[in-house]
Specification:
It comes from Candidatus Portnoybacteria bacterium RBG_19FT_COMBO_36_7. This is DUF5667 domain-containing protein. The protein has helices at residues 2-22, 26-40, 47-83, 92-105, 111-150, 154-168, 171-203, 209-228, 235-267. By secondary structure, it is an all-alpha fold. Among the domains are: 55-105, no CATH class; 108-227.
Amino acid sequence: MINFLKRKIKEYLWRKMMKRYFKPNEDFLNSCRNAFINKICREISSAGESRFYLFVMWLKFSLAIFLGLAFLGSGAAVYADKANVDCGHPLYNLKRAVEAVRIELAVSEQLPVLHTQLAQRRLDEIKKIELETALTAEEVTTKIEDILDTATTTESTTTTTKKITTQKKTEEKIEEEKNRQELMANLRNQMRQEVSSVIEQIEKKQIGIDSIKELCQSVSQIMKGDEETDGDETEESHTQRWSRFQRNCGEFMQVELKNNQNINNGQR
């Protein structure tokens, strides 16, 4: 009995000692209690603070969206300029915007070459539009001929021809032709402005002799290509442009012509 009591007393003392040893510090418990209460019982912000927070978040998202769109737009603009997209391409306006920026940022020595390149682009666009228009007209003519060949009687032929003629003169076709003519006129005016800018740079003697020869040759080819298109330039404007070109580039073009003749004579 005595041994049993001794053993129980030892167990009690042992448990008491272990409890005292593992008991957390009171200061630590108080700090944890305060931190827990502060975390779950935050102060409710006022309406003004909530609106300011929402405004800051909206500003961040708007800035991120703007930067993303700007990145995509700049990439599309660079692609449109490098690929030299056509007039009907969705990125054509971006290409023209990049061209305007290039002119503004180019140094004076590079401006004549850049104006020549842009004039050549306008000429290529004009020729492509004329080619597409010619192909469309040819397709319409072919369809008319096929229908006329398959018609069996004079009455059916007359009726079919009237239907085709009426269809060709609808308001939609007239509007398309009007837009095409306006686009062609704008492209021609811009091309001639680019050419005039190059000739003006040559007049000011701001270009080296070697560069002038190359520019005069390029401008001559562009002006001849302009004559091959169905432009509506007046005779006075046409003569004035060529006179100005001959006055500034005639000497260099004659030298180039003489050099080519000498080379041909030497080969013979």
